[in-house]
Specification:
The protein folds into 2 domains: 213 residues, Rossmann fold (3-Layer(aba) Sandwich), CATH 3.40.50; 100 residues, Helicase, Ruva Protein, domain 3 (Orthogonal Bundle). Helix content is 46%, strand content 17%. The strands form 5 sheets. The chain has a 5-stranded parallel β-sheet with strand order 3-6-9-1-10. The protein has a two-stranded parallel ribbon with strand order 2-11. Helix 10 runs parallel beside helix 12 and helix 12 runs antiparallel to helix 14. The longest helix is centred in the N-terminal third of the chain and has 23 residues.
């Protein structure tokens, strides 16, 4: 593929993504950073964990994005009484055939919204493990492949602790990114209120602007985005700094980090940075793409100590120091 062909393909991809952004923006006011990260998740087929206070449109953003994507969508409301079979499916006895037949669960969809995932106990949360990692589900003695693409977007509320179950580190690590949703700006909230109070505006129907075939084509373009050797080393150094901060002149962080990011974080870093470059209309990754991805890729992969909690040292504050300490190529 020639350079001209690549640039034309990147330009077409940029136009497609811009149309998807506009369509979601017709319904969701503000939250553009969240929308962009979810689009990146689609491009790299990565699972995402969204954390935010109630009423910040977490579910609305996912449902709107699913409405603009021509693929199957399922929403699973996680509750304490949910069973693993309610997600993956189960075997049903057929009296006429005198045998058990599989009934596939709602997880068999291209885009799955696991709403309030931390409200279900561990045995239910673990039902997602095989699906998220292996893209398959085992029911009885048979395994069933999940559709392609298969993406889990989970939400959780950070302020409620009663009746919730913390996600284990092994499962959290399978999310490519953990996104935090904050309050909208004053202007965005005024615009939102104006649309809500306008009696002439009816419910906005979302158009399907992205097909599965287009997504596959965009994913192939992301895979072809160039990552220079210096950028690769930069990514590895940032991840290494979470494990051995003293080697990067950050000895005071050693007592705050119990466990650093895994090699899975390094791979996620590269994928997110490449997709970010594509969204910006480039066929190559620059250091700013890596810096921008650092917080979303790393914040859920750092296991902090009690000392960090006592010093009010959050994962984002630690990542801020690490990004500032590692030399930019």
């Amino acid at each position: 593929m020639t350079d001209v062909t690549i640039m034309n393909s990147i330009a077409e991809a940029h136009t497609t993504v811009a149309e998807l952004r506009r369509e979601v923006g017709r319904v969701v006011i503000g939250q553009q950073a969240l929308v962009d990260r979810l689009i990146i998740a689609l491009l790299i087929r990565g699972h995402v964990l969204i954390e935010g206070l109630p009423g910040l449109a977490k579910t609305l953003v996912v449902k709107t994005l699913a409405g603009a994507f021509d693929a199957t969508f399922k929403r699973i409301q996680f509750t304490p009484d949910l069973l693993p079979g309610d997600i993956t499916g189960t075997l049903i006895f057929d009296p006429s055939a005198r045998q058990f037949t599989p009934r596939l669960g709602p997880i068999f969809a291209n885009l799955v919204l696991a709403d309030e995932v931390n409200r279900a106990p561990a045995k239910v949360q673990s039902a997602l493990l095989e699906a998220m990692q292996e893209r398959q589900v085992t029911i009885g003695d048979a395994s069933y492949q999940l559709p392609d693409p298969f993406i889990v977007i989970a939400t959780q509320n950070p302020i409620e602790h009663e009746g919730t179950y913390t996600l284990p580190e092994a499962q959290v690590d399978r999310f490519v990114m953990k996104l935090r949703v904050d309050y909208p700006s004053v202007d965005d909230e005024l615009r939102m209120l104006g649309l809500y109070l306008d009696p002439t505006i009816e419910a906005i129907a979302v158009r399907k602007v992205l097909s599965t075939a287009s997504l596959h084509a965009l994913s192939r373009l992301v895979a072809g985005v160039h990552v220079d050797e210096k950028i690769r080393r930069y990514i590895v150094q940032i991840v290494t700094a979470t494990r051995a901060p003293a080697d990067f002149k950050l000895p005071h962080l050693a007592g705050h980090i119990a466990f650093g990011a895994s090699p899975r974080a390094t791979l996620a870093f590269a994928h997110v940075a490449k997709a970010t470059a594509l969204l910006e209309g480039r066929a190559y990754v620059i250091p700013e793409d890596v810096k921008g991805a650092a917080y979303d890729v790393l914040r859920h992969r750092l296991v902090l100590t009690y000392e960090a909690a006592a010093d009010q040292m959050t994962a984002d504050r630690i990542i801020d120091q690490i990004v500032g300490a590692v030399a930019v190529p």
